[in-house]
Queue: 2 jobs
Job 1
Amino acid sequence: MSEQIPTRVLGTGDAALTVSTLGLGCMGMSEFYGTPDHAGGLATIHRALDLGVTFLDTADMDGPFINEKLVGEAIRGRRDEVQLATKFGNQRGDDGARLGVNGRPECVHSACDASLQRLGVDHIDLYYQHRVDFTVPIEETIGAMKELVEAGKVRFIGLSEASPETIRRAYAVHPITALQTEYSLFTRDLEDEILPVLRELGIGLVPYSPLGRGLLTGSITEEPPAGDSRATAYFPRFQGEALEANLKLVDAIRGLADAHGCTPGQLALAWVLAQGDDVVPIPGTRRVTYLEENVGALQVRLSAADLRALADAVPRGAVVGDRYGDLSTIDR
């Protein structure tokens, strides 16, 4: 039986999906952040469900392909407890090679069928376009996703890393439940134009990497080891002088966290949660201890003064390095 934690609603009207206030990003259980850990992933998902963290996030590209199988295995017998989200469009080969972004309608349908099979379910609760395909009108992609809803394969649809214009055009075809994009104390650019559009249209926000890919937890003190994707130039914030500068910001957060009797990661996650009841972050981990720490952020209450102190400790523009070394696939 799962423990009770609060819920939030993504989307409005017929596009409203009730989910746990905190979700779980499952990607790192299978790839990118060090050695994959299948057993650890299963244990973490099971513990998440027991705690009431029932909003699970994966993608067909993660692994590639094996993360959906892991999630499917973990929720077997507990499907009714879960709000299941996955994504399509970032195509990869069986060898892991990146094959580009594909938003063609035929890809939408075939990718969904493949995800359903790997997950071992008959429907997906929230199906995202992982990246916008600049060669395909968004109306065509969303039109195909709408057909999945009509077929009962998908309940709600979402976008990831989409610009305000793309969001509006997509919404004109079919209601959008959520936008998934990076958002944290270290990444706040969406506040300028994207967040106002989401609020205008009644679309929820699902921040990924709400802990800055681990930087905001305070557990990272040096450059990641070889084999960890954060050690590559693709993540400039973890490199050399940029990392040194960013760790000084984390030290400032640590001081504020100590005053609250919580960890830096819990404080950073509480900040994201405080940005609105339509915001549902999905911190990723493959370890039960970190999952439990993240859930503890729900007990951290931030006053207006606390929020101002955090803004002063981490001013927008103070973070050194882009969030990705290559932003060419980000719709801006």
Job 2
Amino acid sequence: MKTRHVAIIGGGAIHTCHVEALRQLPNVALRALVDIDGDKGSQLAASYGCQFYLDYREMLRDDAIDVVHICTPHFLHKPMILAALAAGKQVFCEKPMVMNPQEVAEIQAAATVAQRHVGICYQNRLNPTSLAIQRCIEEGSLGAMRAIKAVLTWSRAGRYYSASPWRGSFATEGGSLLINQAIHTLDLMQWFGEGVSRLKGVVDSTLLADEIETEDSAMATMCFNNGARGLFYASNCHASDSPLLLELEFEHGMLRLADNMLWQIRGDGHTRLASDASPDGVGKSYWGIGHQQAIHHFYQGLDNNTAVNYCGIHEAAKSLQIVNAIYQSSLLRKWVNIIE
């Protein structure tokens, strides 16, 4: 099989997960790294044994590059995806794909014209606990789903935003807590509930009000397409990054994800079903361990010329719609319907 040559745009913290995943793939080679910080970028490229570019547009002129990974601030995702597709590259991008649902159609149209795939990194779908939850839902042994509750409490101090000025701004981040940290939790909730039909939510900035123009806390009540209800709370104002607390209530029992362990609860009985503990220490415990799997699935999809194995444009748009609906609901102070 022909070797696929890859370029990564962005040398921030998350790019190391991509490098590690690529190293484990057969017939894949990292050919280039792009970063606007010349000193840092050139040092990283030298350590990886690949070429370095200051300008991603110059990198895109290299016909040998087959796939581009985008690990940059949110406001750069759309122009970089469009440019990469126009250059005939396959694209794998960190979430969010774009900063609002209206921009999704542009990405879809460009991908159709280019006849290329776009994968978006919703890696938490591939955590062992997430896959175990989905299997339980499909098996139906707990009966109909009645509710999903999610609580996400992380810590993002002012220095997190001052160190990267694009964060904390609607123009460049598109929001904060919801579109950056909690979007993965919202994606899992809608995935388990077969989509969200309507919701009512509130966002606010509390401890970080003097640091950012965006939100640091949010809550929402949702109605899922499978008939269940959803309760969601998230904040970046905690003292530390706590693992996600997720509970799914069914007719005949409950699934509870706590401290990265998934438990099935029936009456007084507790059975451990899965764990998200990282066997190799790669990544952070509160991120989950699905990054490498998400990237591997994308490349499997390229091998099979199908979008089934990874989160593509249509699936990535769902959580973005929910984020946008919560912002709208908070502004309007009323329920918002979600139409796919």
